[in-house]
Each structure stands twice: as structure tokens, then as C-alpha cells.
Amino acid sequence: MKRRQLLGALGAAPLAAAVPAWAQGYPARPIRIVVPLPPGSPPDVLARLVAERLQQAWKQPVIVDNRPGATGMIGMDVVAKAAPDGYTVGVMFLTHAVLPALFGKVPYDTAADFAPIANLVWLYNALVVPPTVPARSAKELVELARAEPGKLTYASGGNGSPAHLLGESFRQLTRVDMLHVPFKGPAEAVQALLGGYVTTMFATTSAAVPMVRTGKLHALAVTSPNRLAALPSVPTMAESGVAGFDLREWEGLVAPAGTPRDIILQWNQELARIMALPELREKLSEYGMEAAPANSPDQFATLVRSELQRWTRFVKSSGLKAD
Predict the structure, then answer these.
(1) CA angle 144-147-150, nearest 5°?
(2) Helix (H, G, I), strand (E, B) or coil at 163
(3) Reported confidence tier of residue 323, pLDDT bands at 50, 70, 90
(4) Over the stretch 118-153, which tens digit does the pLDDT of each residue have?
(5) Any idea what DSSP says for residue 256?
(6) pTM for this one?
């Protein structure tokens, strides 16, 4: 009996030691998720879906704080300068890996001023045109651009935004002369496209799908490796003959640098649980988002670093500039 009791105590010891102090005291007050884009944007949609479930699990208010402006730099600066106590986090996405190289200087150090928590989703885009543009495939759009060099335009939600990078990649891979027209945000860019002020745009599928289904826009191709369930008749870029088009958006959560590792891990574990919920994954798919496989803070940090290096090389080699 004593031997069994001793073995039982030894077996339970690691479990008891694995329960850190924060598990009983955090969170003790409201949490803020900073979104560096306006309401209705993909990062905002993601933040609100996550916030609702965090609030249920942690029994504390989780507030989504939209801080748009300067292609996301204003919001991320708020996160970088927040107290590193786990009560302020922010949504970081692909654009933030491009901005340092594109602008030369941002108000924070993307690689050093944040503590990555987890990458949450992958996003894909659709190459779309208004009905007034006489192209119904990516090939026809390329032919149209070559027939009228410099006349066609592509819209984006701002310099360094995914739509800008996608448009520039498309322009270079197809060797066409198209003019970039940046707007204050993706919503403004889509409105300009609908109004016929610009020729084309790589719109997020969450924005593109409703417009395509109602005939307000035509989808020529999608940037996903496989066809999207929401647009099954629309070919991929590879199927459209645009080889080497390898770009997918990512969105994840980061905290200010210096946030205790234990709190980062608690966030990571809870987010992994939330992102595995079938109903959440289904909801995300409706917005054109794909839940990322569970990943550690270190894995997300590696992704951010590799993306910073990748887009720094791209900006230098392509001569990409802020328009």
C-alpha cells in the first residue's frame, strides 16, 4: 500500500509542477485585441470570432479595439508600446512583414518589439474585374494589358497590402504594364472597382465571393493552391497559366515584447483549442479563411522572421515602391 501511494505521489508530481502560477490568476480583468484595420476587414472578423470564444472560456470581457491607419502601422504601434502584461494583444498579418522594407522605417521593430503567440489563419484572394472589363480569364486580362500597355490599373488597400503584393507579383510574372492605385483600405478599393474607376484587384475571398455571386464582379482566378469551395468554377492561378504565383496571406496574434512566457503559452493553448472548434472552422471558411494547423509561439516567430526576409528581398529585387 505504501509503495502504491509513493508511486502515485511521484506520478502526480510532474502534473502539479506543470501548473504555473498564472493558471490561477490570469486573466483577472478585461483583455484588448487591437486590430490595425477598420471593422469588417478580415483581421477584424477573425478578432471578433476569437474574442467571443475567449470571453466564454476566460470569463472576462474581450474587447476588439480597431486602430486603422498607415497600412496597419498605427495599430501595431499601439501593441508594441502597450504594457507587456498579457492584457493587450494585436492581430499581425502579412503586410507587416513588408512595411519595413517598403518604407525604410516604421515606428517599431517588427522582429524585436512583439512576442508572437500563434498564426491563426491562412487567407486567399481572387483576381476580380467589374463586368465592364472585357476579360473573363486571367489569360484574357494579360492579353488586354499587353494590347494597351500602361492603361490598365490594379487597386489595393494601401502600399504593402496583400493586394498590392499580389498585383505586383502578377504584373512581374506576366510581364505586363499595369498601374497600381492604392486606397485607404480594402473596402475603399473594392468600391472603386465596383464603380469602374480601376480595372482589377486581388480581393480577399470574403469580399469577392458575395460580389461574384451577385454578378457585380467576375472572378478570373484564385490564389489558393486548389480551387475554393466558395468559388468552385474559378481556376487557380496555376491552372490559369501563371506559374510561380506563390503567395498566401497569414494572420496571427502577437503581444508586446516582454510579455511573460507563461502567459504567451496560455494564450497559445487556448487559441489552439478555439481554432480546432468545427463550428469556428466552418465560419472561417465562409469568409475565405482556412484555420492554420496548431503552431507554437516559436513556430510563429520563425514564420514572421522568414516573411520579413522574403519580402525584404522582394522589395529590393522588384524595385517595389510606395505609390
Answers:
(1) 90
(2) helix
(3) low
(4) 999 999 899 999 999 999 999 999 999 999 999 999
(5) E
(6) 0.83
CA distance 178 to 155: 10
Give the three cell numbers for residue 63.
Answer: 474587447
Q: Which three cell numbers stand for residue 276?
A: 480546432
Residue located via cell numbers 504584373: 171
Distance CA 96, CA 253 (A): 12
Question: Which residue type sits at 308?
Answer: L
Q: How far apart are CA 115 and CA 133, in angstroms?
A: 45
CA distance 197 to 191: 9
Separation of alpha carbons 1 and 256, rounded Å: 51
| 158: confidence class by pLDDT, cuts 50, 70, 90 | confident
Radius of gyration of the chain, Cα coordinates, nearest whole angstrom: 22
Q: What's the grid cell of residue 64?
A: 476588439
Alpha helices (H) in the chain, listed in sequence order? 2-17, 22-25, 42-58, 73-80, 99-103, 138-147, 162-174, 186-194, 205-213, 261-275, 278-286, 297-318
Strand order in the sheet with 114-123: 62-66, 31-35, 88-93, 249-256, 114-123, 289-291
The set of cell numbers assigned to 277 is 472548434
Domains of the chain: 31-122+249-318 (3.40.190.150), 125-222 (3.40.190.10)
CA–CA dist 65, 96 (Å, integer):
18
